[in-house]
Amino acid sequence: MKSTFESLGIRQTIVETLAKYGIVEPSPIQEEAIPAALEGRDLFGQSQTGTGKTLAYLLPVLERIDASNKDLQAVVLAPTRELGVQIAAEIEKYGAPEGIRSLALIGGAAINRQIDRLKQHPHIIVGTPGRVAELIRLRKVKMHLVRTIVIDEADQMFALGGAKEAEEVVDRAMRDRQLLFFSATLPAEVRRMAGKWMREPLELNIDPEQRTAGGIEHIVFVCQERDKVDTLRRLVRLYDPKSSLAFVNDLDIIAEVAAKLQHAGLSADALYGDAPKQERTTLLAKFRTGKLRTLVATDVAARGLDIEGLTHVFHLQPALDADHYVHRAGRTGRMGRSGWSVSIVTEQEMFIIRKFEKQLGIVIRQKAMYKGKVVEPHEVRSGAERTGTKERTSGGRSGGAGDEARVSENRSGEKAEKREPAAERTSGVAQPASVGLQRRPAEGTSLRSATGGFRSLGAASLRNEREKSVPPRPAAAGKERAGERDRDRKNKGAPRWLKEKRDRDPST
C-alpha cells in the first residue's frame, strides 16, 4: 500500500495545497524523511537530484511551526542566492495559506531593507550563511528559540567556504535544536564535520547504487577542442530544447560561449555567480518563463536550480568529478520526468567520461551527428565510405587523358598544352595538336584548354607583345629626356627666380 502525505503526518490543509500543484504522492525520500523529521531527529538525507528533497525537509518544518507564536522558529541555509530564493518561494507557496510568515536573507541584497522586514517577525528565514551570520552578530536575528536548522546542498556549502558561518548559526540556536542535512552527494568529510554538531543522526540514502535519476539519458559527442562551441550550437539546433543549461568550468569563456550562440541566432545568455542580484534575478525570470532558452553557467551559478521544463543539460567542459556530474545532470529529469545529459568532449577527455560511468554505475553512450540526425558513430563512417565509393566510381567513368590535362592545367597553365591529347579542342572543332601549338593568339585573347575552359595570357606575355609592337626611340630623343630630368632635379626646392632663370638658360 502506497503512503500518502496524510499518513506521513502532514495536516489536511497542507495536503490540499500540495494537490493544487499536482503533488499527490510522496517520493521515496519524502516517505522516509518526513516521519523521522516530525519526531525531531537529526537527519542526513541523500537522494538523487530532482527527487523532492526540498519538500522532504520543508513539509515537516512547516508542520511543526506554531503560527500563533511570532518568534523565529526555523532557519534554512542555502549555498547560493538562487537556491535561497527558490526555497523561499516554496515556503511562501505552502506556508502562506497556514499563516506562516517567511523571509529571504540573501547576500548581495540591501541589508537595511532586510532588517526592516525582520520587524514583521517571520517564523522561518531562508538565507545564505554569510548574511544570516552577519545579522545574528548585529542582533537582528534572534536564534534562542529556533528549533530546526536545515542545511540544503550541504556539500556545496562546505566547498564554498560557508562552514564557519554555518557553525556560527548552529551554535546560536537552542541546545536541543534539530539539524537536517540534505544533498544529492554527502562526501565523507562533510559527514565528519557535520557529525560534530548532530546527535545520533539518522542516515537516509535512497537508492545509493543509483546516484542519477533513472529518466536521464546520458550521451557523449566527440570533437576537436576548437569545434566544441560549434558542436554545441548544432546540438541546440538539432534537439531544439525549450529550456537547456550549458555548463562550463572556466569563468573566462562564459561570455564567449554565450556570444557565439547569440551570433548564431540562438536565444542564449550567461549566468555569472558574482553578477548583481537584480541582474541574476531578471535573467533567471526570463529563463523560467521561456523568454530565454539556453543558459550558459558554471556549477556554482546553477547549483540547486529547479527549472520547470528543463529537458537538456550540455557539458561543454567535463564536470570536475562524479559528484559535480550528478548535480549537473540532476537539473533535468526531475521527479520522474525524462531528460538528456549531453557531454561534448575531445578524444583525450573520453577517459573522464569512462571514469564517471564506473563511479556512478551509468552508461554514457557515444553518439554522432550526420545529415541533421543523431546517429551511432559507425553510421557516420559507413556513410562516409559510401560517399567516397560513389566519388571514385564517377571519377573512373569520366577519367582519362582529359582529366590528366585538367589537373596539369590547374597546376601550371603553361604545361597544360604539352600534356593535351592528340587533338586539341578549339572553338568546338578538333584539330591536330601541332596546328594548335604553332598558332599564336592575338593580344588580349585566350587559349581554350582541353577541358573546354579558358586560359588567359600571362602579364609577362602581354608585355612582351606590346614591346615588340613599339618602335625603338632614337638616341637623340633619349638624351633630351635625360636633360629634362636633370633640370627637374635641380629645380626641386629652388626659389622661383632661379627656376625661371634656368628655364630661360638651360646651361645654368
Automatic annotation (TrEMBL):
Any single Pfam family the record assigns to this protein: Helicase_C
Record-annotated Helicase C-terminal domain positions: 215-376
Keyword Cell inner membrane: no
Gene Ontology CC annotations of this record: cytosol; ribosome
Domain annotation DEAD-box RNA helicase Q: ranges: 3-31
Gene3D superfamilies: P-loop containing nucleotide triphosphate hydrolases (3.40.50.300)
Domain Helicase ATP-binding: 34-204
Keywords, sorted A to Z: ATP-binding, Helicase, Hydrolase, Nucleotide-binding
Stretches with biased composition (Basic and acidic residues): 377-394, 403-423, 478-508
Entry superkingdom: Bacteria
Motif extent (Q motif): 3-31
Location of the region described as Disordered in the Swiss-Prot/TrEMBL record: 377-508
Any one GO molecular function term: ATP binding
Any Gene Ontology biological process: response to cold
Protein name: DEAD/DEAH box helicase
Origin species: Paenibacillus oceani
